[in-house]
Design goal:
Helices cover about 60% and strands about 5% of the residues. It is mainly alpha-helical and about 950 residues long. β14 and β15 form a beta hairpin.
Length: about 950
């Protein structure tokens, strides 16, 4: 009954039926030798309001129990085991037939020898507690079972208290202290536990800790129930203060000289250990170094990454090099109460043959005794699952020490550290093969790869999946991959028996401080590949220094990873766990991190003096990242692009306020027109964001996203036709300044598209519309930008005088409005026009000046455009070497910046320069590649005149 209610006849288990029937049996067993009335049984099963026909149901249960207990009883023969007494029943069983009776016997036996033979009394109580197999009467319904469960639980605690008292009396104070600390966490108001803890601490030589334990007990009682400590605690406190505690006397056990045991405490090696060959070799070499100092190696890493498995595998590999023995201790570093150093030292000393009476009481004395006993011996020590330096430091002795810990143990000197990462994909697959067999994995190799990917390549997760599939041969690997694909249930799937990824993570989470725990669970709500310190500070509402400190502490505990100085990320499964314990709204966290990125993007626009768009964006609450130059901002943009893409995807799912901030972020990033190498991924994210805006009927967000998506499709991906519907939707009649500014961007891009498609008139119309809107806005800086673009349209139409006049107006406006970007664009368009008029020297000077201006701005896309113009100017002037060099530079910049159409222009120029220098084969290849890009964009193949002027002369020397 001390667990589930079960019964046997000899060795044969008996089928006891449903929970109610077993509840009837338990009620009769717990009153063995006494009759129980039907009314008492009905009340015990159903309470004061029994179900209809409760008595009939009771009789049915009794009848079935009789058949089970006496299967050979003849029909209509009277029962001899479960008999009727009046309207009730009596169960006749031999004395001592139940576990409860056996516990009563053992407790009574312990009481008889308590004073004369405390060790024997303790052994009886240990045996009594071992009878519990879980919660008593587990799963039984009804008030009687509830009352008895409570009674039996209290009985067990009383027995446990007596056993702990005997632990202390028989010299096991350190072990008792470790156990009591955990019990007090669970039962903070149980004064006997508190008293035993004080006694145990005193006898461990920790008098000050014993007094502190009294202070904690008093605080718990006063705060919890408003009472002072009782007489037992009070008297004990006074005795400790006076030093009047009774001494513990123990019998001495003598060990004959030369008979000291050789400890061999290593747990078994793992039969299917896979991979890590290089690490195994390195650790083995470190531990077997023949130097005189203790060789100390520490293996760190997140929970479930295989630290213990690796350490034990290495320890078994080198055990022959340590003939005097191997010591092992699980220090339970992530448990609520880790193993105290004194308890671990006591265990080592006992393993080395030290008598209980000879084990010193203090940690320092035990550590000294251990060093003495290990002096001159070749002994390997494995300290598994260490918590911190304070726990490990007293234990270091022997010839070599191998430590595993989730903590970095940074204070530990003279140690060789190994940071264990997840498996490589090939190693994870090999582990799955070792568990499931090569044939089964090969038959579903793609699904197997999906499974290990969903496991985050974490060895524990792969092992759990393998174990579950191994005992379910009828399951396909694909079916398990489908179950793991659902992030919401993934951690629930990754458990089998006592192995569970979530349980491993929860132990690590349980040791965090409040600040660490808050950061851990809050940061996981941002579904991004990684985060900068500044972004983390914005999420947590703290300064960057504090953000870095808390993140570094989580890295030290293997709950966070650092990808580069100042950047942090989660392992996928740890993120899922952290999200599961999060107590903050996902949308609020998402808005804060979007707010940081939007504020930073505003700062970037301001750093390059590009436009006054920032005044039209939603207000931000954090200062964001500051930039010293455009190149600094370009580097930030490159690093943060994957983060921004992920934020857009999350905002598309979450919607609401996050959608508004994400839409403005998309807009301001589109102003830079540099999607880098993630243009396709960004376009998909923006499409998802657009779908959400339409679904929420958020027209303002929709217009921003369409403008950003149109710019990306046309510039970043070279998909001109695909960009037009989005841009046309934005260029309609504006209602406010935000609409006007968006219409400027859309109209400019429509003008560029029309020019590329050969419709000069439509291009003029779009640019005129954009220019009118900038004047309405009073934005002379944007007006200068528009006029610079109109210059190019005039030039390509062969209207050079008009182009020169327009460029000069743009330059004047750009200077007046302090817009270096528009000034650079207008300058290189003026240079290109002068080149077409034959004014090559002046054109070269202006073109070089425009390149320098773009370099100062720091945006590589703009420098790529300027270099393309300068390459064209040098080619027109006959400076073939300079043309080739500038075209090559532009080609590199525009490849990195993701502008396929202008990259194709630069490639065509480079091909022309190569052809002019006699490198025909390569020129033809590059021109074909350029033509293919134009063709994919829906544009005609390039010629010099089509690219930069009028006419139809194809590139000289290039087919």
């Amino acid at each position: 009954m001390l667990g589930e209610v079960r019964a046997w006849r000899g060795e044969e288990p008996l089928p006891l039926g449903p929970p109610q029937r077993r509840a009837v049996l338990a009620a009769l067993l717990l009153r063995a030798g006494s009759a129980v009335t039907a009314a008492e049984l009905v009340e015990g099963l159903w309470g004061a309001r029994p179900v209809p026909r409760a008595t009939a149901a009771l009789r049915t249960h009794v009848a079935q129990l009789r058949r089970t207990l006496e299967p050979d009883r003849a029909a209509r023969a009277p029962a001899t085991v479960l008999v009727s007494i009046g309207d009730g029943y009596l169960l006749r069983i031999p004395p001592g037939s139940t576990d409860v009776a056996e516990v009563e016997r053992l407790v009574a036996a312990a009481a008889q020898v308590r004073d004369s033979h405390p060790a024997a009394a303790r052994a009886n109580l240990v045996a009594a507690l071992g009878k519990w197999q879980g919660t008593a009467l587990s799963g039984l319904p009804g008030p009687f079972a509830e009352r008895q469960r409570a009674r039996l639980a209290q009985w067990r605690l009383a027995i446990l208290e007596d056993r702990l008292a005997l632990d202390i009396e028989t010299g096991r104070s350190s072990d008792a202290v470790a156990e009591l600390a955990a019990l007090i966490e669970e039962y903070p108001l149980r004064e006997r536990f508190r008293a035993l803890l004080m006694t145990g601490l005193y006898h461990c030589g920790r008098q000050s800790d014993a007094l502190d334990a009294y202070a904690q007990a008093r605080r718990a009682l006063v705060d919890g129930v408003g009472v002072e400590p009782g007489p037992e605690l009070t008297v004990l406190h006074e005795r400790i203060l006076r030093g009047a505690m009774p001494a513990i006397t123990e019998p001495r056990v003598l060990v004959e000289p030369g008979t000291e045991p050789v400890p061999a405490q290593l747990p078994p090696d793992i039969a299917d250990f896979t991979g890590r060959e290089r690490l195994v070799d390195e650790l083995a070499a470190q531990l077997t170094d023949s130097g005189s100092a203790v060789a100390i190696s520490a293996v760190g890493g997140m929970g479930g990454v295989g630290k213990t498995t690796l350490a034990l595998h290495v320890a078994h590999r080198v055990r022959d090099r340590f003939p005097d023995g191997q010591l092992y201790a699980n220090l339970h570093g992530v448990d609520p109460v880790p193993t105290p150093p004194g308890a671990a030292l006591g265990g080592f000393l006992r393993a080395l043959g030290t008598a209980e009476a000879d084990i010193p009481s203090t940690v320092d004395e035990r550590a000294a005794e251990l060093r003495t006993r290990l002096s001159g011996k070749r002994i390997l020590m494995v300290l598994d699952n260490a918590r911190d330096y304070a726990q490990v430091a007293p234990l270091l002795a022997g010839s070599a020490v191998l430590i595993t810990s989730r903590s970095a143990l940074t204070e530990l000197p003279a140690v060789t550290r190994t940071r264990l990462d997840v498996l490589e994909t090939a190693e994870a697959m090999a582990l799955l093969v070792r568990i499931l067999g090569a044939e089964r994995v090969a038959a579903e190799s793609e699904s197997a790869r999906a499974v290990v990917a969903h496991c985050g390549l974490l060895p524990l997760a792969v092992r759990i999946v393998g174990a579950r599939l191994a005992v379910r041969p009828q399951w396909t690997i694909a079916s398990f991959a489908d179950r793991l694909a659902d992030e919401k249930s993934r951690l629930n799937v990754l458990k089998t028996g006592e192995l569970a990824v979530e349980a491993v993570f929860r132990l690590g989470y349980g040791q965090l401080s409040d600040a660490q725990a808050k950061a851990f669970r809050t940061l996981a709500l941002a579904e991004v590949p990684d985060l900068s310190v500044d972004g983390i500070a914005a999420i947590l509402g703290i300064c960057s220094l504090d953000a870095e400190e808390v993140c570094e502490s989580l890295v030290d505990l293997s709950l966070l990873e650092t990808t580069a100085p100042g950047r942090y990320r989660f392992h996928d499964l740890l993120r899922l766990f952290a999200r599961g314990v999060a107590d903050e709204d996902e949308s609020a966290v998402l808005v804060r991190v979007l707010d940081y990125h939007l504020a930073s993007a505003k700062n970037l626009l301001s750093a390059i003096d590009y436009s006054n768009t920032t005044r039209l964006l939603v207000a931000t609450t954090v200062p964001g990242r500051a930039f010293d130059s455009g190149s600094d901002g370009q580097a930030w943009n490159d690093i943060e692009r994957p983060v921004v893409i992920a934020l857009h995807q999350q905002a598309a799912r979450v919607g609401g306020r996050a959608l508004d901030v994400a839409a403005d972020l998309a807009w301001v990033m589109a102003e830079l027109m540099d999607a880098g190498t993630g243009a396709r991924e960004l376009s998909r994210a923006l499409e998802s964001l657009l779908d959400t805006a339409i679904a929420e009927d958020n027209l303002a967000a929709e217009r921003r996203i369409r403008a950003a998506l149109g710019a990306l499709l046309q510039v970043g991906l070279g998909e001109v036709e695909a960009s037009l519907p989005h841009l046309r939707a934005v260029s309609g009649p504006p209602t406010d300044d935000v609409d006007r500014r968006l219409s400027v961007l859309a109209s400019v891009l429509l003008g560029v598209a029309a020019r590329r498609l050969g419709d000069a008139d439509a291009s003029h119309q779009h640019f005129e519309h954009a220019t009118e809107l900038t004047r309405t806005l009073g934005d002379r800086s944007m007006e200068a930008w528009c006029l610079a673009l109109v210059t190019r349209t005039y030039c390509e139409a062969g209207q050079y005088d008009e182009a020169v006049a327009m460029a000069q107006r743009a330059i004047t406006l750009a200077r007046e409005s302090s817009n270096p970007v528009a000034l650079g664009w207008a300058t290189h368009e003026l240079a290109a026009t002068l080149s077409m008029r034959g004014e090559h020297q002046r054109a070269i000077e202006l073109g070089a000046e425009a390149v320098r201006a773009a370099q100062r701005n720091g945006v590589r896309l703009w420098e790529g455009w300027a270099r393309t113009r300068l390459a064209q100017i040098h080619l027109q002037a006959g400076n073939v070497a300079e043309a080739e060099a500038n075209a090559a530079g532009a080609l590199h910049l525009l490849t990195t910046a993701a502008d396929p159409i202008d990259r194709a222009r630069a490639m065509a120029l480079h091909a022309a320069a190569l052809a002019a220098r006699g490198r025909q084969a390569r020129a033809e290849q590059e021109f074909r590649e350029s033509a293919e890009i134009f063709s994919r964009a829906g544009l005609s193949p390039p010629t010099i005149d089509r690219l930069f002027g009028t006419g139809a002369t194809r590139l000289d020397g290039v087919e």
